[in-house]
Amino acid sequence: MASVTRDFPTRYTPALDAHAREWEAAGRPAAPPARPAATVMLVRDREDGQGVEVFMLLRVATMAFAPNTLVFPGGGVDRRDGAELPWAGPPVHAWAARLDSDEQLTREILVAAVREVFEECGVLFASRLEDGRLVDTRSERWQALRRRLVAREASLGEVLRDEGLLLRTDLLRAHAHWMTPEIEPRQFDARIFAALMPEGATADGETSEAQHSGWFRPGDVLADREAGKAILMPPTVVCLEDLARAASAAEFFAEEPVIRLIRPVLARNEAGELVTRSQLPG
Question: What range does the domain containing 133 cover?
């Protein structure tokens, strides 16, 4: 099917609106290079059997990028994410074909996805055997390793090698690919993944970047956005809409959607209001 155009009302402050006007007056100068990033939708079935839910974090107000915004766990690629490390699941070349990227960047993106979920949620997609039980990270020793990762005192590859663990890329599914609108001073080229919440694990949201975290029904979050009670970025809106249509977490995880790069552009609607306009796959 043909792509469709969606408008997402922005929630820019007056200062950012002034920045947008300056950017437009300057002839819409080119954006700086985008930093590769990875985001993960950690999903599970609701205990009451009424659909699915997803783990989200409310970013602190002091964040330079997307403050006070509900997001999935994720972040930018670290320079050490591309190092060789113990690997399980599809080989890098197969992932590269799926992500339409070179093998080095592909490795960095997948490692960043697993690392960010561990840093922000305490859930680590790693095991001693290729199809084995995931490592239990609830001990103080593992929490200390988690803090070392956050402080960039160690890389995920070093931790996995020291602990005799394999990175479980088979527990991730590629879902979408978005880039930041070019007006933003901080640019991210983000791959969005889906992952099932491992049985017996606990997502805690213990990160300095979040003021609140928890499990949310996608429909509730979308309703809060419409009511002006929640701030969401366009990729989050679309992903939540996708998730809301799933009958179960397993069904959502099993999907293999067509992935096309989406980069929203800043525009003004008929009322002259700023909107983020995105070309979405039909």
Answer: 4-280
